[in-house]
Design brief:
heterodimer, A: 429 residues, mainly alpha, 3-stranded antiparallel beta sheet, 3 strands, B: 292 residues, two-stranded antiparallel ribbon, 80% helix, globular
């Protein structure tokens, strides 16, 4: 616990640098990443992070030292070049985006590897540790690095803040943005530059491979919680910052643990939780909705069956045995009895001596389902000119969905009909 | 002799990757290769921890398992959670790679693997990784045998499943209508990519695997509209790249894998530029008609 306290009071300057550096990196990357994700360019982060290698090597060859300014400049130039090249290849040939990204990524990185071997053979003593730029050493962030990160993060924040509306518009509706006279090409280039900037700053902390995650994983998680882009950006930033903090804490508590990978694992965990449990969009809530709908459909089908049986002897409230209520060919007999029990609980059906019968409420509900079915059949034959023997299956599905408003509209359009295309009565309620 | 073994290894990887890469490029799934080649890291580490050695078989199994896990997770998040494919790829492979690095750090004393070797590989060590039989006969480099086996496997897979692969790549709806399971062929292809990536990466590294998976097929795709011809061009180009790349590395005294990747880039750039210069006025759809 004492460790936790020491950590969060940031009393140790080393801890302070690492924590602040990580949080700044992660949150600014997440912010830019939101727009990248929305533009369906999630993997360009991976391309940029690989493409910075030749730039770093060139900067080293040029300056002969590991001056961080030169390194960042070199990385920025080749990263930027790679993105422009990807866009160019996609625009000017039939090569698709994914292949262009993979190609540029591997060729740039290969070039970097060639330069790296050249540097290693040159015998320049300063070259040792050059690969820290590639594999990330977040735990070794020092004061001067922090100054650079802060400046870059502020640049990113202001740029995104200033062009927020334009970026959002381009991400969602490009042609509309063009029609409104936004300089879409220039905005693309600006976003590209911001991406490269975010990657170049982040790469020193998390490394080549994991940089793609810092950009898009928080954004992908945020997408599941909201449809509002402003909220999505804030959420992504919050997720990113939390991951940065957690990563720093884990490597503080267990010094053998690498910060960058833990940041990625934490933000992946947030993303996985979001994919599964985010309200309405997550996998589990979706499955639950589906399950509920299936139950409702089973109940409505059972009610309908009562109605059909009742129609034959004009005795809608008569008692029926379970096997009568299982439609011939309906393999799911247990589902039918389950539905019946639920209907009893809802007081739509009563049970007497192992037989089932509709209540007054149940009769009304059953009549409505049958009515919607027949109205829809009539609509299909009358307006879509579909043969009367082809309309049943479609109506079978739609009867569970039609709202009262739609029902009124259908009735109005069809002139308040009495008979469906099979010449059976459409029940009135 | 060293040059021969290295070029042979390079060519084997290039041909195997290229054949599968053609289908990946056509299916717009090129980055899946990238994802798998990184996602195998935790599998390799776990296999290493369990078997306690760098034996090939446990490594292949471990890596193959995580490779398939990665493709499964990507498909799952894409289908069930409605996550866009590129984001699914990006989230999944970085997560697995991060887990791999954490495992390496956690068992630093016991694991003789680091992430550089996954990215770079070392094709120059191929000739010294010899396969020596029980009675002491030297049979040549071990990777050459493994890679030849994988190449045969992949070639047989494509030969036998050519029709299905082609149909599911170009017209999945029509394939389903004919009763061909698109999901089955998707996973078969992914399994093939996993095995190839895993058996290749130790000798050539993830980056060169990606270059070979995407570079030659993309170049061939620019040159032809015929799948058979695309496969043929890819194979020829792969061998050419392995050969030229090796001599370039020899001449520059630089990373062999790096040079091969650079040659791949030069090949693509040449074809791309020549095509841009040759037919600047014909719009692509028209060009397709005249070519077809």
């Amino acid at each position: 616990m004492e460790g936790l306290f020491d950590f969060f009071t940031l009393s140790d300057p080393n801890v302070r640098y690492v924590v602040l550096g990580n949080v700044l990196l992660a949150s600014s990357a997440a912010m830019v990443g939101t727009f990248i994700l929305l533009q369906k360019k999630a993997l360009i982060g991976d391309a940029v992070s690989h493409a910075v290698l030749p730039g770093i090597c060139a900067a080293f060859l040029f300056s002969g030292s590991k001056n961080i300014g030169f390194m960042l400049a070199g990385a920025f130039i080749t990263g930027w070049l790679a993105l422009v090249l990807i866009d160019y290849i996609v625009a000017k040939s039939k090569i698709k985006k994914d292949a262009a990204i993979g190609l540029v990524l591997s060729v740039f990185f290969g070039t970097g590897m060639v330069m790296m071997t050249y540097i290693q053979q040159s015998g320049n003593a300063a070259q040792s540790g050059l690969d820290h730029f590639l594999f990330g050493k977040a735990a070794t962030l020092i004061g001067t690095d922090l100054v650079i990160f802060s400046v870059l993060s502020i640049v990113l924040l202001t740029a995104v803040g200033l062009f927020f509306k334009a970026f959002a518009l381009v991400a969602f509706d490009r042609p509309y943005a063009e029609a409104l006279g936004y300089p879409v090409r220039k905005l693309d280039l600006l976003l590209t530059s911001l991406t490269v900037l975010a990657v170049v700053t982040g790469i020193t902390a998390v490394g080549v491979v994991l940089m793609a995650a810092m950009l898009i994983t928080p954004a992908a998680a945020a997408r599941y919680w909201t449809d509002n882009i402003r909220r999505m950006v804030w959420l992504a930033v919050a997720f990113g910052a939390f991951a940065g903090l957690a990563g720093a804490y884990i490597s503080y508590a267990a010094p053998a643990m690498p910060t960058g990978p833990w940041m990625v694992v934490v933000s992946s965990a947030i993303a996985f939780l979001s994919f599964f449990f985010a309200p309405t969009k997550g996998i589990v809530p979706k499955m639950y909705t589906q399950y509920k709908n299936q139950r409702i459909i089973a109940e409505e089908n059972a009610l309908k069956r009562f109605y059909h049986l009742g129609e034959r002897n004009s005795h809608l409230l008569g008692l029926r045995a379970t096997n009568e209520l299982v439609v011939a060919g309906d393999v799911n007999a247990p589902a039918v009895s389950g539905a019946l029990q639920r209907l009893v609980a809802k007081k739509l059906v009563v049970t007497k001596g192992g037989r089932w019968g509709l209540t007054e409420d149940g009769k009304r509900k059953a009549a409505r389902v049958v009515r919607l079915h027949r109205l829809w059949e009539l609509y299909l034959t009358k307006y879509m000119h579909i043969a009367a023997d082809h309309v049943h299956d479609d109506a079978e599905t739609i009867e569970h969905i039609i709202t009262p408003e739609l029902e009124r509209e259908l009735e109005h359009q069809l002139g308040y009909p009495d008979k469906d295309p099979h010449n059976t009565q459409i029940p009135k309620i | 002799m060293i040059a021969f073994w290295i070029i042979l290894t390079g060519s084997l990887v290039a041909v195997t990757c290229g054949l599968l890469g053609c289908f990946l490029v056509l299916r717009k799934m090129s980055m899946v290769g990238d994802a798998i080649s990184h996602a195998v890291l935790p599998g390799i580490v776990i296999a290493f921890l369990l078997s306690g050695s760098r034996e090939t078989l446990p490594m292949l199994l471990g890596a193959g398992a995580t490779g398939l896990l990665a493709t499964f997770l990507i498909e799952y998040f894409h289908r069930r959670a409605g996550l866009q494919t590129d984001a699914a790829i990006g989230v999944v492979f970085t997560f697995l790679f991060a887990v791999g690095i954490i495992l390496i750090s956690a068992f630093a004393g016991q694991v003789d693997i680091d992430q550089d070797c996954v990215l770079y590989g070392e094709i120059a060590y191929v000739p010294i990784d010899l396969w020596v039989t029980g009675n002491g006969t030297v049979m040549g480099p071990r990777p050459v045998y493994i890679l030849s086996g994988v190449l045969l496997l992949v070639a047989a897979f494509i030969r036998l499943g050519y029709k299905e692969l082609k149909l599911t790549s170009f017209d999945p709806a029509f394939a389903s209508a004919l009763g061909i399971s698109t999901a089955l062929w998707h996973y078969l292809l992914m399994a093939a990519v996993s095995i190839t990536t895993v058996s290749s990466f130790e000798s050539v590294g993830a980056i060169l695997v990606i270059a070979f998976l995407i570079g030659p097929p993309a170049t061939a795709y620019l040159l032809t509209h015929d799948l058979k011809r695309m496969l043929a061009i890819t194979v020829a180009m792969g061998i050419f790249i392995a050969f030229t790349g090796y001599w370039m590395a020899y001449w520059l005294n630089a990373s062999i894998a790096g040079c091969m990747a650079v040659v791949t880039g030069i090949c693509f750039a040449t074809v791309f530029v020549v095509q841009r210069l040759a037919k600047p006025k014909i719009s692509p759809p028209l060009a397709q008609e005249t070519a077809g």
